[in-house]
Structure formats: structure tokens, C-alpha cells
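Mods, move this if it's the wrong board.
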Amino acid sequence: MTPETTSNNNATKATRAVATLGTEPFQEANEKVRELLAHADTVEIQQAHAQRYLGCAMPAGKRLEIHGTPGNDLACYLDGGSIEVFGNAQDQVGNTMNYGEVVVHGRCGDAAGYGMRGGTIFVRDGCGWRVGVHMKEYEEHRPAIVIGGDAGSFLGEYQAGGVIVLMGHAGAYLGTGMHGGVMYLAHPLAESAVPAGLVQEPLDADDLAVLQPLLDGYAQHFAGERSLPDIPASDYMKLRPASSRPYSSMYAR
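Not the wrong board. C-alpha cells:
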């Protein structure tokens, strides 16, 4: 648990530490990680076994490298930090995160990016249900979730802002209640399957300026780990709300 240190201009500062969690309860595990982050910029976590709340509210300049399977609410309220998971992640990754980056070298469970307000989540493989639910844009922040595989049902449910990129196939009830933001789909919907209140259309130059860097980021994070879909950014389709109030006809007058 002792941090590694480096010396710079006669001032010694811890830059990296290692924590082995094993079956340690989540409260004790998080306390251990927080203590190390107080002195180190990067904490490598070995043998993560479903401990919840790792990286909660972690600020900019701090980084976790997690080997194993972190538990629910990884990176909740993340506030600028960086988290990389070398394995799968469970539910609610990036719950209400403000800013920062999460990279998952595997798949994630349900409700990743719930209420997400900023930052980026990259998932190499597929995801569970209700990913991106209630995503929103906050001030200058525009959150993004990039999913390399298939998505479960209700992707982008009630999405109010931000960007979802799906390289695989969407599950049922895509974009239910979506009223803001945008999805970029590598596998477009049949026109008969486009949900009421939403529009599917080709990308324009502004879309490509958003999508291409996200695809490039995905390729850099997961280089050599899986084959990218052979679909150029220009062949994706955009799914967006038909208007700023796409469901107004359903409201009581």
C-alpha cells in the first residue's frame, strides 16, 4: 500500500500507488483508495471484486487503473478524474458524473451514464439496459457514451442532451422519451421502427466533427483488442428528437 515516489527539484511527491482489494468490504476498500489518492496521482487497483463507489467524485488530475470487476456506481459524480477498467464493469457506471473519462476494456451493466452531465465513457463491448437514461448537457459540458457492441433495451431513455454512439445493434425501445441530445447509429433503424417523436437522418458536417473524434478515441483506447466495425463515420445515421417538444401532443392541455 506504500506509494511509489519521484523527486522533482528536491521536493518529493508520490505519483503512483497500488492497492489490492480482494474481498475487502466496499467501505474499507474506498477508504484505502482515498487515502492513497491523497498522496498519489494514480492508484492501481488489483483484484477488484465488486466493491461499489470506486472513484466517486474523484477530481481532475487523479486516475484509477482497475484490474478485476468494480461494483455498482463506479465513477459516480466523477469530477474530472480518469478511470480505466481492465475487465467488465457492473451497473451505473458514471452515475451523474460531471466531467472526466471512464474506459472499460469489456462490457458494462445497466444504467451507465445515468443523469450524466459531462465527460466521456468508452465501453469496448456491449452494455445492459437503460444506458444514457436522463443524460443531459450542463453549461459547457456535453457528455458522450461510446458503446462498441450491442445495447440492451431502452438505450437513451429520456435522453435530454449529450451524445450516444452505438457501433453494435440497439435493443428494444430505443430512445423512449428522448427529448434532447443525439444518437449516432452504425446500424440504422428501419424507417418503420423509428420511434414516434424522433427523426433518423444522415449526418452533416457538424455531426461528423462530433462523431469522428469519438470513434478515433475508441480506436486508440482499444487498439488491437477487437476489430472495429467496418463502417466509416459518414455512414452512421443520426437519431434525434423531431422538435424541442416532441411529445407535446401527449400533454394535458
